[in-house]
Amino acid sequence: MSLKAAADKFQKFCSVFKNEADCFPILFELKWPDGFRCPRCSHSHFYLISTRRIPLYECRSCHAQSSLIAGTIMEGSRTPIHRWFQAIFLHAQPRCINARQLSEAIHVTYKTAWLICHKIRHAMTSRESTRLLSGIVRVSDSIYSKRLTPSFDWHKQEQPLLVGASDDGNGTLGPIVIKLQSKASLKDKYDCPDTAPFIREHIHPDDAENTIVTRRYGRNMNKELAWMGYNVTWWIGRTFLGIGPKHLQAYLDQFCYYYNRSRSTLYVQLLADCINSSRITYNELTKSDSRSRSNRLTRTPRQHSIKLA
Questions:
Q1: Would you kindly state where each structural domain of the chain is located, as residue ranges?
Q2: What are the pLDDT digits (tens) for 181-225?
Q3: Which residues are CB-contacts of 210 (< 8 A; sequence separation ≥ 6)?
């Protein structure tokens, strides 16, 4: 899709969701697909309190009040809901978006855009965390940001990965899982990470014993798995200008989320996952004290996007 076609598509979407009220019916349907259910007592009838910016739904039985964004990644956000819808839409397009681009597209500050991006990424991670590979499963080591040098030593940007995928029996890869590994237990970059924890956590118990493990080099290598590190490096580099190890796993999960789903229905799936994923705060995302947080957010957007996108 050309840039102009993508821009026209986004403008058409924005014309449908012009304000927060346009989003309420969709939020209600995705939050309560079988009709309202009180989060405290599961009663199905409510009083609508429409005097708030975002309506409240008061249970007729226990009188507990529930918001449309309670229990979602949008909970506690001051950003209008239609801006969230626009951000999720842009994350579901073939050309993904980084925080600097999102800031310009939906007219929010860079700090807000960065937080929105990571909260959406958190919803993707939560959804992918439930995936267990099954059937014929293949696992290989790979490297993120691999440098073409003969050295055995790790370059500071190189990160070891384990890549697993279901095989349909004809050699075509199905769903994938990519996990960042620690360098601490590896003697050099040609050493293979321990695959046992990966198999235990990400492969169905019925298929774990028959998992086919290969290396990223040698006669028996699986080229598609071994080169997955290159593919994800290229995607992260093109979209986010490179990512350090602190947040890398979240971006690997985002890559897998896209890979494992049909692009034609991705927006609906992503919106539903964002609504069904619990909130995460800035402090939880950064795991840093207020002083270092303040220092980071006073950097220019371009400097910040290179490290955290």
A1: 3-31+69-128, 136-233
A2: 999 999 998 999 999 999 999 999 999 999 999 999 999 999 999
A3: 136, 137
Q: Which two tokens stand for residue 37?
A: 């259910």
Closest to 178 in 3D by CA, of 200, 155, 202: 202
| Tokens linked to 31 | 């939050």
> Which CA distances in Å does 77 have to 67, 102, 244, 278, 282?
12, 16, 27, 13, 11
| Residues in the chain, overall count | 309
Global pTM value: 0.88
